Amino acid sequence: MNIEEALQKANLDIRLRGEDAPHQWFAYAEIEANVLCDQQDLKLNFTFNCDRRIQAYAVYESELVVVTAGLFDFLCRLTDRIVSKGLFRELGCADAPTWTPSLERSDQTPRKIIQDIPFVDGVSEWKHDPERYALFFYLLLTLFRFVVFHEMGHFYHQHGKRSSDSSASMDVDSAQPKLLPENEALDAQAREIVADKFAMDMLTICTEAEIERMKSTPFMAPLEKKLLNSKERRAQFLLQAAYIYFAATDRLPDSVPEDSIKMSHPPAAFRLVTLAAMVTEKLGNKQAHSALAATIVGDALIAVALDRQPDQKWLARMQAPTLVEHYKNLYGRFSFWTKNSPRLMRGKNE
Length: 350
Hints:
By secondary structure, the chain is mainly alpha-helical. 53% of the residues lie in helices and 6% in strands.
């Protein structure tokens, strides 16, 4: 297919070609994304485009997954900050993380803080520590894979065909989700969580498949031995990575809690609880409780990485009566947006 024409037809920014990319990680990521998209009988295409906004797209007519340069650069900044701050101390010679929170930073969204942090490939101190370098590589890869798999999930579950809006030519995943009427937001959030579940399933399969290869690769072996040496610990890592991504791109706290039920994308807490429940179902009881306990520290990871106060009430807010009711209604819509639902609202395969 002609990717440039597909982008133009979808009114998206031009393609980012390898020679124009700001650093080497774009090239590695594009190779990886093309491999991911060429599976699951989907046979999708992938490209970066030059847009500096933090967005990703599932363009249905072109069967194209698009990640903006702004989103991938954002993931690089986020990962660099986490590794530079000494988090995941099991690896390398990192000093104990320092935490100097400020009220100013605590009032800002993680997204705003991360966007103000520069990332220049090759200058971070962790590059001279092989284990920290491996951590940067694998955490960035995991975050990026989650984004790509999420967009693939929209295709896999046929969200374009299930939409009641005949003009819904693509799904847009943005770092600042828009507010919708409540009846529209319910289905929009359900669609996103179904895509999240697909992404976590595929990410787990992908991680499990490469563990043996990691053991025999000198660069990656310490990562497997110290951080990913059991299914339980791998589940912890993937859930923490998912929460880091959710929290970093969440609309809150620059909106009021009541907006949670109107957002086009569910709040980080909703998304995390659903994925944690999925992992709980697949692991034994002891492993599940351990994985869930580890996930709760996800907000602490963000707090330390960005020198802001942790949101200690994020789980408690889930118990607000309006949100409990909204989540029940949301749960009731999952089946409609899941593949093999008998109700396809439009499309040639209705």
